[in-house]
Amino acid sequence: MSIVLDPAAQDLLFREARTANTFTDEPVTDEQVQAIYDLVKYGPTAFNQSPLRITLVRSAEARERLVQHMAEGNQPKTATAPLVAILAADNEFHEELPELFPHFPQAKDVFFGERSAREGAATLNAALQAAYFIIGIRAAGLAAGPMTGLDFEGVRKEFLDDDHTPLMVVNIGTPGEDAWFPRSPRLAYDEVVTTV
Q: Which of 41, 56, 148, 169 keeps 20 to 30 A from 67, CA to CA?
């Protein structure tokens, strides 16, 4: 069986896509980000909980505050990317479940009444949504530079609150000069897949 998606789209989303390390100064608009979100919001999460929250860092003042929490090697990338997004998990996502999961509104209390259950579910499902978001950036013809080299607690205190857990920072834009490192190896199918 072959993949139905056009080979050029496969290349755009996966085979030719890489983490960008440099960007041009071409701006990324709110309309582009909304189009990305309006596509990727359909990616599945458990109970349709949709816990990903996105903070767009646009102002010079906010950028400066964020850069100080990035690992040293990531600071120049975040300082110069046209747009930076902080992706976080909302640990109070259950408040939205009666609307998002209307055929079983009791899920809010039955499964997610305890904070520890919410935190685990929020982290896993927001990470899924973060992956969808990165693919959506690529689908928009832009490049993503996702990074976890940062002071998570510092970012949380600076930009979020106790109900949100930062997952990563994503630099977004049109790739610049020497944007890509060489493609790193991947594991083969038979190294990953086991049939039982």
A: 41
Kindly provide the residue ranges of all beta strands, DSSP E only, lying in the chain, ordered along the sequence.
Answer: 52-57, 83-90, 143-147, 164-173
pTM for the model? 0.95
pLDDT per residue over 39-82, tens digit each? Answer: 999 999 999 999 999 999 999 999 999 999 999 999 999 999 99
* 146 bridge partner residues: 170
From CA 143, how far away is CA 19, in angstroms rounded?
A: 7
Q: How far apart are the first and last CA of the chain?
A: 21
Q: Report the 3 state secondary structure along 39-96.
A: HHCCCCCHHHCCCEEEEEECCHHHHHHHHCCECHHHHHHHHHCCEEEEEEEECCHHHH
Q: 27: which strand partners?
A: none
48: left (phi over 0), alpha (psi -120 to 50) or beta: left
